[in-house]
Amino acid sequence: MTDPRSLNLTNIALDLHDDGVLVARLNRPAKRNALNAETVEELVTLFSMLPRSGVRAVVLAAEGDHFCAGLDLVEHHREDRSPADFMHLCLRWHEAFNKMEYGGVPVIAALKGAVVGGGLELASSAHIRVADASTYFALPEGQRGLFTGGGATIRVAGLVGKARMIDMMLTGRIYKGQEAVDVGLTQYLVEGSSFDTALELARRAAQNLPLTNFAICSAISHMGNMSALDASYAEAVVAGVVNTQPAARARLAAFADGSGPRIRG
Ligand code: 1HE
To answer: What would be the CATH architecture of the domain defined by 210-256?
Structure first.
């Protein structure tokens, strides 16, 4: 087990709570938390070690008024990258975001302000998104002469459908408020602070057994990549492991003796 606080990160601030909830804050507010190459490497480092850290859930939040302004356009302009260089950079984004989505540790994104371009790609790699009244979603790549490179064609299209993603990119359409919920960009829209709600949700998820959360936060995504036949086989295998875990016996015993919680609407 490695304590994430032992990581030496410059652009992500970490705060580990006693209940195993890790608050990770993007920490370049002066640059609207734009993702430079260094921050992407820090995301890879953080999310690669989390499954072996004992952390039970993550709140992915941000300093300042904006969650994330996407690719660091100034760095990209300055570096004048070759096609191969940018391809390799995008592969690092994918490494980071795949570690998030498939890592088995619940990640709850606390959104505010701009969640745009690569910022939306980052948010869409979380398992739960919580937006507040200031949050807006866009894919401005089309207007900047760019294309998505951090997984939007998979995850954003998966959330909103390909027709809406194409519209967002062709026209610069911005989604916010209830409409963002309705199209699937965020599961929660809160009147107060998205951070407070994200923390509450993370605390709730952290009470689940880690192996169960591992299955929820990796197997469902993996199975989405499989044929229905293979997914149903994989589901049976995962359930074989998870549903017989010794740690679940006390919860099952509590239900059987009537002391466990009942699920009522
Ligand atoms: C940045 C970035 C950035 C801000 N890269 N530096 N993303 C975009 O097209 C969004 C670009 N950003 C914006 O539209 C605006 O900055 C915001 C709406 C997010 C915020 O506006 P505002 O008025 O609060 O801030 P600002 O004055 O525009 O910017 C403040 C500083 O942040 C300024 O730096 P400064 O040193 O001049 O003070 C900006 O340069 C800096 N900044 N956003 C670099 N994105 C894997 S492919 C992914 C493809 C993409 O993500 S395309 C990017 C889409």
So the answer is: Orthogonal Bundle (1.10)
Instruction: Select from 32, 79, 141 the residue to mutate for testing ligand 1; criterion: most ligand atoms less than 8 Å from CB.
Output: 32
Domain-wise residue ranges, the chain: 4-206, 210-256
Specify the CATH number of the domain 4-206. 3.90.226.10
Q: What are the φ and ψ backbone dihedral angles of 38, each rounded to 5 degrees?
A: -65, -40
List, for residues 225-234, the tens digit of each pLDDT value.
Answer: 999 999 999 9
The answer to whether residues 127 and 105 touch, using CB atoms and an 8 Å cutoff, is no
Entry pTM: 0.98
- Centre of ligand 1 to C-alpha 64, Å, is 13
Per-residue pLDDT tens digits for 25-57:
999 999 999 999 999 999 999 999 999 999 999
2 pLDDT tier (thresholds 50, 70, 90): confident
C-alpha gyration radius of the chain: 19
The DSSP output letter for 243 is: T
CB atoms near residue 208 (< 10 Å):
16
